[in-house]
Design the sequence.
């Protein structure tokens, strides 16, 4: 970024940078809608009780209070005990999954299942800001959620949708890394390690502390034997862009029913991706997604050459997103870190907007009284989708052209006293007669476009 | 609304209602961009000191604290005194003007002035929720701000832009009521009432307490004589859709330089509006916009037949939006209450979405193994902008059609074993041969559209 945010962790964009963000958001929306996902938004606040239900680290949560109020908890109904009050107190959501689960339960009677939704909103976490991590950031989520049972095929479909969405963005190549909890858990059980959650937590640290330290953890904390630790690490080292991971796992000689189910599921995802989107999906058996409540497929995504940014898109399958009485709502979904992506695009100028304003044409004024006629010309152009401004004062033409140049407006329009019109491309200096009823700028000048920078890696 | 929000004051929309909101937001964005306004967003939080700088009622403000923190003020740099700490504490913004002013000052070196921006974001106020007033709501603001001097013509332009934007929405007829602070202040001074702010505050109560009570206020609280009170009320009773208000004011026999300037300014706005957008703008000399910091033109908007909703779009001219050293940034702008409008549209079904999902076509499955071929058909359709879903399981065709029907998807696609394709309009039952490479639904079925309900007032 050229500038620092005036409040650390709360990035803001200049108009030209915002065009890059808008392009990313529009592209995601379009892809999601083409795949039949409906837009929803949820309120920015949840009750503290709702947010902490799944045991997330509560340190990250921003709680609200009314400035003039002694007791926090504005907006929620007062309850009798102070515990209940604390639960009902309001806080900003830290992701879009918890609010979506509440929304599904509250509106189950009004939704057609399997319900496909996308949700693009800001979330807040009171974490220490660093490169790729803000306190306020935008997420773009897609999920499919069923009432009762959700066919596995959706795990395959969502991988394909997200690959299509990310491929349409002005970003470097990416790898969607896929694993399967059943595969991993079945394997650990098959080698005699019963605390599968504990093993996953240790394996999740591979990138940070390395294989040897993970082996130590497995042995000291989980009582694994040397050969069990070696087997767990061998599984985590498997990485293939096709379905050959299946043979590699089988070669480790472990048999377990859950492992077989996981292998078959992961094979379906990778096989479909290898044929429909070759090179973008990897079976990566080290992916654990430590704290999350996934039960099957898990996804993570890195930008090639920008691995230090962390995952730019993660998700998975959860057997029970929410429950309502005896109904259970399983789902599968992914979340794109829009702000993380846009910060990197803008910060390293991986892509730039072709101009900083929507305006294609400035209608100049020959004299102050011609403003109404200038508005007529502008209205004619806008009627054909051409973004147009009218000069506010009849300054010298040179000054009006300079104004357009300063704002990055490519064309200036002149109307002579005799009512004839001319339009000038102020970049080339080319000027020619033009008719307000028919003139159109070249397609590439109609709207600002976002283009991958030529030098971008 | 069909349902009540689960948290009072925090409305949430069902997918079909959200389509109405999206249509409103897309329409506003398109209009603003056609007029050369650039999109920006500001962070949701400001420091408490910044928010209270203009003396807004602090009761409305939601302050943030980290859940695990004793001291509020997360995110801001610690300062030495506790007053400074309270100032630096973070709170949610309650409008988009205060954040915009900060943004302009912080980024003045990067912006081309006059800077034209639109900003569509949620804001939060801890007020008592009621019809037309939420605690979380979306505003859509446009402003033009200059570095130094902003020609009056922008006051005229912004009225025209906002009339065009509102006219494009699926809402009943509206009236943009315009007045001018200079006109009112000059008049009050001309009749010998020096406390013009006091008079404005009293006149602002006209709608609520009536003319007689306002006259009493003017006399008892401001020491006005009977004839001064009558003159002030006579001015406030003037309302014309053309520039005849000028004669009516002159007929009251008051002369004052500021009054003349205000008359001339208001005349320019109303004259342009009467010729370019007849019937949508009214000179209404009772509009005071009590607490706001406007210095010239003031705007307010009511929906005809929905006056009880309050103003759906307000704004005005401020001589100094912000200052930076000896630089001053005057501006003029308006803010549309999107949530207020959408709540009314949805609540009274003034307009509805033609279907609840983006999907136009469901590709059915003859057998489970044909899913990859179905994805090929879907990809071909999506390539031409047709939103398409693929069935997840090869259930009986009747069940697959029922699924489409339940979700409101108009077309179901069938691929026979011999590779031939048929598409069925499940509303009419019409079925015919189709080619994935060329078939297109009728234009009105391509995307969900938002249409004004036939019975809407």
Sequence:
């Amino acid at each position: 970024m050229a500038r620092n945010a005036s409040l650390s962790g709360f990035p803001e964009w200049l108009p030209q940078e915002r065009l890059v963000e808008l392009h990313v958001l529009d592209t995601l929306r379009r892809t999601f809608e083409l795949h039949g996902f409906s837009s929803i938004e949820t309120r920015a606040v949840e009750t503290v009780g709702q947010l902490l239900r799944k045991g997330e680290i509560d340190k990250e949560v921003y709680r609200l209070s009314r400035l003039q109020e002694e007791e926090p908890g504005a907006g929620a109904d007062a309850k009798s005990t102070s515990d209940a009050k604390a639960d009902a107190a309001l806080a900003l959501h830290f992701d879009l999954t918890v609010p979506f689960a509440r929304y599904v339960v509250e509106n189950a009677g009004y939704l057609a299942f399997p319900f496909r939704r996308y949700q693009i909103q800001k979330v807040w976490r009171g974490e220490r800001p660093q490169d790729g991590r803000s306190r306020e950031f935008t997420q773009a989520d897609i999920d499919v959620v069923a009432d009762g049972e959700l066919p596995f095929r959706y795990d395959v479909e969502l991988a394909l949708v997200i690959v299509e969405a990310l491929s349409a963005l002005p970003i470097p190549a990416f790898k969607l890394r896929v694993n399967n909890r059943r595969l991993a858990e079945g394997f650990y059980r098959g080698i005699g390690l019963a605390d599968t959650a504990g093993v996953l937590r240790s394996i999740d640290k591979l990138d940070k502390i390395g294989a040897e330290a993970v082996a130590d953890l497995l042995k000291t904390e989980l009582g694994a034997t040397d050969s069990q630790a070696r087997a767990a690490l061998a599984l985590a080292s498997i990485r293939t862009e096709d379905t050959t991971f299946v043979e590699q796992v089988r070669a480790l000689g472990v048999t377990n029913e859950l492992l077989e189910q996981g292998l078959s599921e992961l094979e379906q995802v990778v096989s479909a991706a290898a044929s429909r989107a070759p090179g973008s999906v990897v079976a990566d058996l080290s992916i654990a997604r430590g704290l999350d409540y996934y039960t099957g497929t898990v996804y993570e995504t890195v930008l090639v050459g920008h691995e230090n940014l962390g995952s730019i898109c993660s998700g998975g399958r959860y057997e029970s997103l929410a429950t309502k009485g005896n109904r259970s709502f399983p789902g599968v979904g992914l979340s794109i870190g829009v702000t993380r992506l846009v910060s990197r695009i803008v910060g390293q100028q991986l892509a730039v907007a072709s101009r900083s304003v929507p305006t294609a044409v400035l209608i100049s004024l020959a004299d102050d009284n011609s403003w109404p006629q200038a508005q007529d010309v502008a209205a004619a152009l806008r009627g054909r989708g051409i973004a147009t401004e009218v000069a506010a004062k009849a300054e010298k033409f040179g000054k009006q052209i300079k104004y357009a140049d300063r704002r990055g407006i490519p064309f200036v329009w002149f109307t002579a006293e005799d009512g004839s019109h001319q339009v000038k491309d102020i970049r080339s200096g080319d000027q020619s007669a033009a008719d307000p009823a028919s003139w159109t700028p070249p397609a590439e000048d109609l709207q600002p476009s976002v283009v991958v920078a030529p030098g971008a890696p």
